[in-house]
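Re-run with default settings, no changes from the original entry. Doing this only to confirm the output is reproducible before filing.
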Amino acid sequence: MDLLIRNIGQIVSGNINAPLVEGDAVLVKDGRITAVSHENSLNVSNVERIIDANGCTLFPGLIDSHVHVVVGDFTPRQQTLGFIESCLHGGVTSMISAGEVHIDGRPKNPVGLKALAIIAAQSFANARPAGVKVQGGGLILDPAFTEQDFKEVAEAGVKHLGEIGLGTVTDWALAGKMVGWAHKYGLKVMMHVGGASIPGSNVIGADAVLTAKPDVASHLNGGPTAAPLAEVKRIITESNIALELVQCGNMLALQNVARLIHRHDALDRLIIGTDMPSGTGVVPLGMLRTITAVTTFSDIRPEQAVAMATGNTASVYELRRGLIAEGYEADFLLVDAPVGSVAKDALEALAVGDIPGIAAVFIDGALKIGVSRNTPPPKRKATL
């Protein structure tokens, strides 16, 4: 179905290098964005559905780079049903599993770990909770893995490794060898950084990360205990690894790390996640809260912080979403300053520390929710 979103107040692209887009309309066909422009320059004669944004701001759908899902919309860690659907009401349209470590009786052998990753990857590929796109199956490493194991899981649909450091591999040279095998078969790799988070996890610093060479250095502000800032600086300056900040971490460290990344001109490497469900709990507004923290605790502009929660993560994981651009999956949000805020629009709300109000969430061009039940109500509401 063709869809036109018109009368948009501002378009945030998700592109860290050009975070704002000229235009007031987005055209969608068959779940993909076909045009981003001014309405008067578009051919809209055959559009089947027209939605008036009423001046709301358009964001790409948020991509949570760090979620400990299991299978389905349930978390054993917090005994909570429907947490993914609740995150949809926080603007999250995609999630990346950091490893299914919270499953009761988690396997601790190569066969079981591979099976768990394959089941999670295929389950979420076949069934999207509330429509949210979950990349499940974060394979947890075992010292007995061989190159053949990575080939097998990749062929079965696994797309990435969960956090190195949550399993039993503590020989970082061996971890690096496994990262090489993972990359050979197209798997992305994330790695725990900082203090231990759950029984069996490890304290991991810069030497381990620089030896293993993952794609993502996870939760540099702590998961929940942060690594020393000097260790984080080494990861920033001695590698091109993606740099992750999360909600369920150390908020002072978030401030310090965000500023450090900014000073080293590495904003294109910064990605945002939640690291929930965790001991901190289920945080449906975790992505919006972290975006707000990144921009209010540093000199990072709100539209740049949105890119860190969308396009930057999509780039790391090679996803065709996270950008408001032609050819990309039509996952996006209509947002505005919340009722009662001093801000005049969603970006200004972020700048003053307010959570924007969500007026609508779309996935593949399909309306999933209208006004969010979790955010404050937006000042302006779209005509849906």
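The first strand starts at residue 3 and ends at 6. Residues 110-126 form the longest helix (17 residues).
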